[in-house]
């Protein structure tokens, strides 16, 4: 079982003036502790599940570029990019750039987007959900075409690219892994089966059912279900003094039994850094062979 750190909240004890240094400390500690992924949300306003819109929020890919320079081994990913936030050709270039500059550590995490408030607030077109899924599929097609080195014109319903050139090419071959986030049974999990290297599901009571749905989509698409990496969003709370570490190990073991290979999510009180050290000592080694 792999473990990934997501950093969803940038309202830190020392404020923006120390945010860069504090973020570097967290990232380096997680990297050295054995976290397999370091992830950030792709939002411009803070989301309501965390706090008020006005709370500090960093742009995702600028942040991942900074984290690439602060770390040496962890994979770098958004959990997950909103497909309507960036033109597909630019997104492919952005992820490729991250992959090259990080030494081949970039993943593309992507989903259909949901936060209309920040889109309207910043003037980002936010079409209805059906169109967002159409745009998501075209974005996946464009990224894969560019990573293949195919410069022929792309003509989709929503995007037209005359020459999708991608130079330099990604270091990760055949391409940076694609993680598609979301649990929708009719559209999202079908796209995982068709285009994804990994899925990311929320920790809900029907996880086993979601995996069954994904398996059925794989059969329909002629895709090997076992090729897809199953990841789950998970909040790591080891307690004030590490007293909940055993509980974390047990819960991760349950996910592994369901067929999940990775858990990614926030670490409670991450800015104190100590919880990362507890994870390094008592959780990550215990689940590494699950």
Q: Mean of residue pLDDT? A: 96
Shape: globular
> Looking across the biggest beta sheet, what order are the strands in?
3-2-1-11-10-9-8-5-4
Number of strands: 11
What is the strand content?
Answer: 5-15%
Q: What would you report as the Rg, rounded to the nearest angstrom?
A: 19 Å
Helix content: 40-55%
| Number of continuous helical runs | 9
Span of the ends, CA to CA: 5 Å
Structural class designation: alpha/beta
Compressed to H and E, one letter per element, the order equals: EHEHEEHEHHEEEHEHEHEH
Low-pLDDT parts are: none
Instruction: Profile the largest sheet.
Output: 9 strands, parallel
Topology:
Elements: E1 2-7, H1 19-33, E2 37-40, H2 60-70, E3 75-78, E4 81-82, H3 88-101, E5 108-111, H4 116-122, H5 129-148, E6 154-155, E7 160-161, E8 178-181, H6 188-195, E9 198-201, H7 207-221, E10 229-233, H8 245-258, E11 262-265, H9 274-287
Helix pairs in contact: 1-9, 2-3, 3-5, 6-7, 8-9
């Amino acid at each position: 079982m792999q473990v990934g750190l997501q950093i969803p909240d940038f309202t830190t004890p020392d404020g923006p003036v120390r945010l860069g240094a504090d973020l570097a400390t967290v990232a380096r500690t997680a990297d050295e502790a054995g976290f397999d992924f370091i992830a950030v949300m792709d939002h411009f306003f803070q989301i309501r599940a965390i706090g008020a819109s006005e709370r500090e929020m960093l742009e995702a890919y600028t942040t991942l570029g900074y984290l690439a320079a602060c770390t040496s081994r962890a994979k770098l990913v958004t959990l997950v990019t909103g497909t309507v936030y960036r033109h597909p050709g630019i997104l492919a270039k952005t992820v490729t750039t991250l992959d090259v500059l990080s030494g081949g550590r970039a993943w593309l995490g992507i989903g259909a987007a949901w936060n209309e408030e920040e889109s309207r607030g910043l003037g980002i077109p936010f079409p209805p959900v059906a169109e967002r899924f159409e745009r998501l599929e075209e974005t996946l097609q464009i990224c894969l075409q560019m990573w293949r080195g195919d410069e022929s014109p792309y003509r989709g319903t929503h995007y037209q690219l005359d020459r999708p050139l991608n130079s330099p090419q990604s270091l990760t071959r055949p391409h940076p892994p694609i993680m598609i986030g979301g649990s929708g049974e009719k559209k999202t999990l079908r796209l995982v089966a068709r285009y994804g290297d990994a899925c990311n599901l929320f920790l809900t009571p029907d996880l086993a059912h979601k995996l069954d749905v994904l398996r059925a989509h794989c059969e329909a698409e002629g895709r090997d279900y076992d090729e897809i990496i199953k990841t789950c969003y998970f909040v790591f709370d080891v307690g004030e003094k590490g007293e909940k570490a055993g509980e974390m190990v047990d819960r991760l073991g349950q996910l592994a039994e369901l067929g999940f290979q990775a858990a990614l999510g926030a670490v409670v009180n991450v800015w104190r850094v100590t919880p990362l050290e507890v994870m390094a000592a008592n959780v990550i080694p215990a689940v590494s062979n699950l």
